[in-house]
Design brief:
The chain is mainly alpha-helical. The chain is built from four helices and two strands. The chain has a domain at 62-185.
């Protein structure tokens, strides 16, 4: 009589990663796609999940700061429109009104673009703002000190937005590596 032996715990042919559902041979300790510790201890798996969770929170914080920079682009658009309107009404200066209207429209386009490319839009808006301020200073040097506090606030908001966009891009890269990109960011 032939004896049939069946192991109590057969070794599986493949192990599926809990994080990204990639199949691996049973001797793999870490997922080759997302680095999840598929053969790790529960502590290692928990640590991985906590790291991903903290990165998602950091991404959310960076995206909130980027929204602040986007808002500043809208504010800049409004300020250019209002200043052009004031120049038109007070001095009947059609050229300044048209120029400020065009700048305002450019800022509105940049604000819209910042939903898809925050870094590019914020850097472009910042460069345009600085260029306008430098040109205004050449036309009338007293423009440097007029509204200096507002200018510093706008510049600080743009710099903060640029840093946050860089941070968000970096965190997104990390989350993409571990296949844990939040749904709203795909």
């Amino acid at each position: 009589m032939e004896e049939l032996t069946t192991p109590l715990n057969p070794i599986p042919d493949v192990i599926t990663c809990e994080n990204c559902n990639t199949n691996h041979p049973p001797d793999k300790k870490f997922c080759s796609e997302c680095s999840f510790p598929i053969q790790g201890t529960e502590d290692e798996k928990t640590s991985f999940r906590l790291t991903v969770g903290s990165r998602k929170r950091l991404l959310k914080d960076a995206e909130e700061k980027v929204k602040g920079a986007r808002t500043m682009i809208y504010v800049a658009a409004g300020l250019f429109f209002i200043s052009g309107l004031i120049l038109f009404v007070a001095n009947d200066d059609v050229e300044s009104f048209v120029m400020n209207l065009v700048i305002s429209l450019i800022y509105l386009i940049l604000a819209s673009w910042s939903n898809r490319n925050p870094f590019g839009a914020i850097v472009t808006a910042f460069a345009i703002y600085i260029t306008i301020q430098v040109l205004a200073a050449f036309v009338d040097p007293t423009n440097i000190v007029r509204g200096i506090i507002l200018k510093f606030i706008i510049i600080a908001a743009f710099v903060k937005g640029i840093r946050s966009a860089i941070e968000a891009r970096s965190i997104m890269g990390e989350l993409e590596k571990v296949r844990a990109v939040p749904d709203g960011n795909r």
